[in-house]
Amino acid sequence: SAFVALDALPQTPNGKVDRRALPAPTESEQTDSYVAPRTQSEEVLSGILADVLATERVGVHDSFFELGGHSLLATRVISRIREAFGVELPLRALFETPTVAELAARVDAERHAGGTQAPPLERVTREAPLPLSFAQQRLWFIDQLEPGSATYNMPAALRLRGALDVNAFTRSLTALVERHETLRTTFQVVDDEPVQVVAPAADFPLEVIDLSAFLAEEREEEVQRRVRAEATTPFDLAAGPLLRATLLRLDDCEHVVLFTMHHIVSDGWSTGVLVREISALYEAHARGETPRLPELPVQYADFATWQRAYLAGEVLDAQIAYWRERLTGAPPVLELPTDFPRPAVAGTEGATVTFALSVETTQALRGLARAEGATLFMVLLGGFQALLSRYTGQEDVVVGSPVAGRNRMEVEGLIGFFVNTLVLRGDLSGEPSVRALLGRVREAVLGAHAHQDLPFERLVEELSVERSLAHTPLFQAVLTLEEARRESLHLGDMQAERLETGSATAKFDLLMALSDEGERLSGRVEYRTDLFEAATVERIAAHLSALLAGMATQPQAKVADLAVLSEAERAQVLEVWNDTTREYPYELSHQLFQAQAERTPDALALVHQSESLSYAELNRRANRLANHLCGLGVGPEVRVGVCLERTPELIIALLGILKAGGAYVPLDPAYPTERLAYMVEDSGAAVIVTQERFADRLPGEGVRLVRVDADRERIAAESDVAPTTGVMAENLSHVIFTSGSTGRPKGVMIRHGSVAVLLHWLRENVSDEERSSTLGATYANFDVSVAEIFG
Question: What is the pTM of this model?
Answer without folding.
Answer: 0.71
